[in-house]
Design brief:
With 206 residues, this protein is an alpha/beta fold. It has a domain of 138 residues: Rossmann fold. It has 8 helices and 9 strands. The protein has a 5-stranded parallel beta sheet, with helices on both faces. It has a 4-stranded mixed beta sheet with strand order 4-3-6-5. A hairpin with a 2-residue loop joins strand 5 and strand 6. Helix 1 packs across helix 7 and helix 5 packs across helix 6. The longest helix is centred in the C-terminal third of the chain and has 15 residues. The termini are far apart. The relative contact order is 0.20.
Length: 206
Protein backbone atom coordinates (compact mmCIF):
# COMPACT_ATOMS: atom_id res chain seq x y z
CA UNK A 1 0.00 0.00 0.00
CA UNK A 2 1.86 3.05 -1.30
CA UNK A 3 -0.32 5.79 0.15
CA UNK A 4 -0.39 6.23 3.94
CA UNK A 5 -3.28 4.18 5.28
CA UNK A 6 -5.41 4.36 8.40
CA UNK A 7 -5.74 0.90 9.95
CA UNK A 8 -8.52 0.23 12.45
CA UNK A 9 -7.65 -2.62 14.83
CA UNK A 10 -10.44 -3.95 17.05
CA UNK A 11 -11.02 -6.95 19.30
CA UNK A 12 -13.03 -7.93 22.36
CA UNK A 13 -11.50 -7.20 25.75
CA UNK A 14 -8.82 -9.84 26.33
CA UNK A 15 -8.28 -10.40 22.61
CA UNK A 16 -4.75 -9.08 22.88
CA UNK A 17 -4.85 -6.30 20.32
CA UNK A 18 -2.88 -3.81 22.43
CA UNK A 19 -0.02 -6.29 22.89
CA UNK A 20 -0.05 -7.15 19.18
CA UNK A 21 0.02 -3.48 18.22
CA UNK A 22 2.90 -2.80 20.62
CA UNK A 23 4.89 -5.66 19.06
CA UNK A 24 4.13 -4.44 15.54
CA UNK A 25 5.34 -0.93 16.37
CA UNK A 26 8.69 -2.38 17.51
CA UNK A 27 9.08 -4.28 14.22
CA UNK A 28 7.93 -1.58 11.81
CA UNK A 29 9.06 2.02 12.22
CA UNK A 30 6.82 3.21 9.40
CA UNK A 31 3.69 2.75 11.49
CA UNK A 32 2.35 5.13 14.13
CA UNK A 33 -0.22 4.49 16.84
CA UNK A 34 -2.89 7.07 17.47
CA UNK A 35 -3.00 7.59 21.24
CA UNK A 36 -6.60 7.75 22.41
CA UNK A 37 -8.15 9.87 25.15
CA UNK A 38 -9.95 8.10 27.98
CA UNK A 39 -11.65 8.90 31.26
CA UNK A 40 -10.69 5.61 32.89
CA UNK A 41 -7.90 5.41 35.45
CA UNK A 42 -4.45 4.21 34.34
CA UNK A 43 -3.67 0.54 34.84
CA UNK A 44 -0.31 -0.49 36.32
CA UNK A 45 2.48 0.43 33.92
CA UNK A 46 0.40 2.75 31.75
CA UNK A 47 1.73 6.25 31.07
CA UNK A 48 -0.11 9.43 30.16
CA UNK A 49 0.55 10.34 26.54
CA UNK A 50 2.04 6.93 25.75
CA UNK A 51 -0.78 4.44 26.27
CA UNK A 52 -3.63 6.95 26.59
CA UNK A 53 -4.29 10.58 27.33
CA UNK A 54 -5.99 10.22 30.71
CA UNK A 55 -8.48 13.06 31.17
CA UNK A 56 -11.41 13.86 33.41
CA UNK A 57 -14.96 13.36 32.19
CA UNK A 58 -15.64 17.13 31.91
CA UNK A 59 -12.44 17.54 29.86
CA UNK A 60 -13.44 14.69 27.58
CA UNK A 61 -16.97 16.00 27.02
CA UNK A 62 -15.62 19.46 26.23
CA UNK A 63 -13.37 17.98 23.52
CA UNK A 64 -16.31 16.00 22.15
CA UNK A 65 -18.43 19.17 21.99
CA UNK A 66 -15.66 20.82 19.97
CA UNK A 67 -15.70 17.86 17.55
CA UNK A 68 -12.06 17.16 18.36
CA UNK A 69 -12.60 13.40 18.03
CA UNK A 70 -12.84 11.27 14.91
CA UNK A 71 -14.82 8.86 17.04
CA UNK A 72 -15.77 8.53 20.67
CA UNK A 73 -17.86 6.17 22.74
CA UNK A 74 -18.72 5.14 26.27
CA UNK A 75 -17.41 1.65 27.05
CA UNK A 76 -17.70 -0.06 30.45
CA UNK A 77 -18.65 3.25 32.15
CA UNK A 78 -15.69 5.15 30.68
CA UNK A 79 -15.29 7.37 27.63
CA UNK A 80 -12.75 6.74 24.84
CA UNK A 81 -11.98 8.96 21.87
CA UNK A 82 -9.58 9.33 18.93
CA UNK A 83 -8.12 12.79 18.33
CA UNK A 84 -8.83 14.05 14.81
CA UNK A 85 -5.87 16.41 14.33
CA UNK A 86 -3.21 13.93 15.45
CA UNK A 87 -4.39 11.28 12.97
CA UNK A 88 -4.58 13.72 10.07
CA UNK A 89 -1.10 15.09 10.89
CA UNK A 90 0.51 11.63 10.99
CA UNK A 91 -1.05 10.61 7.68
CA UNK A 92 0.06 13.90 6.09
CA UNK A 93 3.61 13.14 7.26
CA UNK A 94 3.55 9.89 5.30
CA UNK A 95 3.01 7.43 8.14
CA UNK A 96 0.54 4.56 8.27
CA UNK A 97 -1.59 5.00 11.39
CA UNK A 98 -3.15 2.38 13.67
CA UNK A 99 -6.29 3.01 15.69
CA UNK A 100 -6.90 0.76 18.70
CA UNK A 101 -10.71 1.10 18.92
CA UNK A 102 -13.92 -0.96 18.90
CA UNK A 103 -16.39 -1.72 16.11
CA UNK A 104 -18.59 1.25 17.00
CA UNK A 105 -15.63 3.60 16.69
CA UNK A 106 -14.70 1.93 13.41
CA UNK A 107 -18.09 2.86 11.98
CA UNK A 108 -17.61 6.48 12.97
CA UNK A 109 -14.07 6.67 11.57
CA UNK A 110 -15.15 5.31 8.18
CA UNK A 111 -17.39 8.34 7.73
CA UNK A 112 -14.26 10.52 7.61
CA UNK A 113 -11.88 7.89 6.18
CA UNK A 114 -13.87 5.54 3.94
CA UNK A 115 -10.62 4.06 2.56
CA UNK A 116 -9.46 2.93 6.01
CA UNK A 117 -8.64 -0.75 6.53
CA UNK A 118 -10.34 -2.71 9.31
CA UNK A 119 -8.59 -5.59 11.12
CA UNK A 120 -10.43 -7.61 13.77
CA UNK A 121 -8.43 -9.65 16.29
CA UNK A 122 -10.09 -12.89 17.38
CA UNK A 123 -9.23 -14.96 20.45
CA UNK A 124 -8.97 -18.66 19.52
CA UNK A 125 -12.00 -19.74 21.61
CA UNK A 126 -14.47 -18.66 24.24
CA UNK A 127 -12.67 -20.77 26.85
CA UNK A 128 -9.29 -19.21 26.07
CA UNK A 129 -10.77 -15.72 26.26
CA UNK A 130 -12.30 -16.46 29.67
CA UNK A 131 -8.95 -17.78 30.90
CA UNK A 132 -7.14 -14.67 29.69
CA UNK A 133 -9.60 -12.37 31.43
CA UNK A 134 -9.29 -14.41 34.61
CA UNK A 135 -5.47 -14.49 34.52
CA UNK A 136 -5.32 -10.69 34.33
CA UNK A 137 -6.66 -10.62 37.88
CA UNK A 138 -8.26 -7.22 37.37
CA UNK A 139 -11.95 -8.14 37.47
CA UNK A 140 -14.31 -10.23 39.58
CA UNK A 141 -16.50 -13.01 38.19
CA UNK A 142 -19.46 -10.73 37.44
CA UNK A 143 -17.31 -8.33 35.43
CA UNK A 144 -15.69 -11.20 33.54
CA UNK A 145 -19.12 -12.61 32.67
CA UNK A 146 -20.16 -9.17 31.45
CA UNK A 147 -17.03 -8.94 29.30
CA UNK A 148 -17.71 -12.37 27.83
CA UNK A 149 -21.24 -11.33 26.83
CA UNK A 150 -19.88 -8.14 25.33
CA UNK A 151 -17.23 -10.13 23.46
CA UNK A 152 -19.94 -12.16 21.74
CA UNK A 153 -21.75 -8.95 20.76
CA UNK A 154 -18.53 -7.41 19.43
CA UNK A 155 -17.51 -10.48 17.44
CA UNK A 156 -20.93 -10.49 15.76
CA UNK A 157 -19.67 -7.44 13.82
CA UNK A 158 -16.70 -9.32 12.35
CA UNK A 159 -18.01 -8.93 8.81
CA UNK A 160 -17.65 -5.14 9.01
CA UNK A 161 -13.86 -5.58 8.90
CA UNK A 162 -11.54 -6.32 5.99
CA UNK A 163 -9.35 -8.89 7.75
CA UNK A 164 -9.54 -11.33 10.66
CA UNK A 165 -6.43 -12.27 12.65
CA UNK A 166 -6.50 -15.05 15.25
CA UNK A 167 -4.36 -14.35 18.29
CA UNK A 168 -3.58 -18.00 19.05
CA UNK A 169 0.19 -17.90 18.53
CA UNK A 170 1.37 -14.41 19.45
CA UNK A 171 4.38 -14.15 17.11
CA UNK A 172 2.44 -15.52 14.16
CA UNK A 173 -0.43 -13.13 14.87
CA UNK A 174 2.03 -10.20 14.91
CA UNK A 175 3.37 -11.32 11.53
CA UNK A 176 -0.19 -11.54 10.19
CA UNK A 177 -0.81 -7.98 11.35
CA UNK A 178 2.47 -6.73 9.88
CA UNK A 179 1.85 -8.51 6.58
CA UNK A 180 -1.60 -6.93 6.26
CA UNK A 181 -0.13 -3.47 6.82
CA UNK A 182 2.78 -4.02 4.40
CA UNK A 183 1.41 -6.47 1.81
CA UNK A 184 -2.36 -6.25 2.02
CA UNK A 185 -2.81 -9.85 3.18
CA UNK A 186 -2.08 -11.91 6.32
CA UNK A 187 1.08 -14.00 6.49
CA UNK A 188 -0.90 -17.16 7.29
CA UNK A 189 -3.00 -18.41 4.40
CA UNK A 190 -5.83 -20.94 4.15
CA UNK A 191 -7.41 -20.26 7.55
CA UNK A 192 -11.00 -20.00 6.33
CA UNK A 193 -12.24 -23.18 8.04
CA UNK A 194 -10.38 -22.31 11.25
CA UNK A 195 -11.95 -18.85 11.28
CA UNK A 196 -15.43 -20.23 10.67
CA UNK A 197 -15.01 -22.58 13.63
CA UNK A 198 -13.96 -19.78 15.96
CA UNK A 199 -16.83 -17.55 14.87
CA UNK A 200 -19.26 -20.42 15.40
CA UNK A 201 -17.86 -21.00 18.92
CA UNK A 202 -18.70 -17.44 19.91
CA UNK A 203 -21.81 -16.70 17.87
CA UNK A 204 -23.68 -20.02 18.10
CA UNK A 205 -23.02 -20.68 21.79
CA UNK A 206 -22.60 -17.10 23.06
Amino acid sequence: MSEPTLFIVASPSGGGKSSLIAALLKRDDGVRLSVSHTTRHPRPGEEHGVHYYFVSEPEFLELADREAFLEHARVFDNYYGTGRQAVERQLANGHDVLLDIDWQGARQVRKSFPASCGIFILPPSMEELRQRLTRRGQDDADVINSRMRKATAEISHWDEFDYLVVNDNFNEAVEDLRSIVRNGEPARKGQEDYLRGILADFLETG
